[in-house]
């Protein structure tokens, strides 16, 4: 079967994006996702985004698969990219409402940037030392998917992958695991973040829910004030804003670029992707 796709990225966090409303998707979707995300043998991406019809009256439903083929609840940069993709399809715009496994998302698609409303932060756990982890205190917050947030003095020297892998599989986050965000405070309204992503099992150039969690935790701990500008590994800057009510983060928003890199068509045959 031939599959049309769009390659997009949000601050370097890259995706293969599909219009799945016609039902024409690979039967072995998890295997296809693993192949198409392979950076040496195929298109390469951190994950796959698919637009499918909504059953609840929303403009569409977003399905998101990490590069390992597993479907997960949400992706912040992916939400911005699929919003621009949906507007390009002519679904609606510039305002959208769509479903995710994590709940409904509201988006506004502008000429230069896309803003998504991610709802409220939840499952906040204050800083604590974890047994078996020889690193700084870890703070937890769920911004659609779980995140462990650590503050470091030197982002360049921080052991992102070793520590990230350990935290991702730590018993404190069993059974689903967590993403791990390493944060350096740069000013009253600015931080820098590097993220080890669950499902990609490596550092990514940016993580939207991780950027959001890091900014929210930085404010909750009194390290900076919102809105927070967040420098990502790609060099792009994302903006996070929200309300604080009773020590909780409400109406988290994430704003930044959502860029079409190229469009193409694939042939799926004999468990291989041909571009």
Please report the first level of CATH classification, the CATH class of the largest domain.
Alpha Beta
Quaternary organization: single chain
Query: Share of helix among residues?
Result: 10-25%
C-alpha Rg, in Å?
Answer: 18 Å
> How many distinct beta strands?
19
Give the low-confidence spans. Answer: none
Largest sheet: 19 strands, mixed
Which fold name fills CATH's third level, the topology of the largest domain? Answer: Diaminopimelate Epimerase, Chain A, domain 1
What would you note in describing this structure?
The protein is α+β, with helices and mostly antiparallel strands. It has helices at 29-36, 76-89, 160-168, 208-220; strands spanning 2-10, 13-19, 47-52, 60-66, 71-72, 95-99, 105-109, 114-119, 122-128, 138-142, 146-151, 179-187, 190-197, 202-204, 228-231, 237-245, 248-256, 259-269, 272-274. It has a 19-stranded mixed sheet that branches. The mean pLDDT is 94.
Give a nutshell description of this structure.
This protein has 275 residues and is an alpha+beta fold. It is built from 4 helices and 19 strands.
């Amino acid at each position: 079967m031939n599959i049309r796709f769009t390659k997009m990225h949000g601050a370097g966090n890259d995706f293969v994006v599909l219009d799945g409303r016609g039902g024409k998707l690979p039967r072995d979707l998890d295997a296809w996702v693993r192949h198409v995300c392979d950076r040496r043998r195929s298109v390469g991406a951190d994950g796959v985004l698919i637009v499918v019809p909504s059953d609840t009256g929303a403009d569409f439903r977003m399905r998101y698969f990490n590069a390992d083929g597993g479907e997960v609840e949400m992706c912040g940069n992916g939400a911005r990219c699929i919003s621009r993709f949906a507007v390009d399809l002519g679904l609606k715009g510039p305002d959208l409402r769509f479903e995710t496994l994590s709940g409904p998302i509201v988006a506004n698609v502008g000429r230069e940037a896309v803003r998504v409303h991610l709802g409220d932060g939840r499952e906040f756990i204050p800083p604590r030392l974890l047994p078996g982890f020889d690193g700084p205190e870890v703070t937890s917050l769920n911004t659609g998917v779980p995140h462990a947030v650590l503050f470091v003095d030197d982002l360049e020297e921080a052991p992102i992958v070793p520590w990230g892998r350990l935290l991702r599989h730590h018993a404190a986050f069993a059974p689903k695991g967590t993403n791990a965000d390493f944060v350096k405070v740069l000013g009253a309204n600015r931080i820098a973040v590097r993220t080890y992503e669950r499902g990609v099992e490596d550092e990514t150039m940016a993580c939207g829910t991780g950027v959001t969690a890091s900014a929210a935790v930085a404010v909750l701990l009194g390290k900076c004030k919102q809105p927070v500008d967040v420098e990502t590994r790609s060099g792009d800057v994302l903006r996070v804003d929200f309300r604080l009510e009773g020590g909780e983060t409400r109406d988290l928003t994430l704003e930044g670029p959502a860029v079409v890199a190229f469009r193409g068509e694939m042939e799926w045959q004999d468990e291989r992707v041909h571009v």
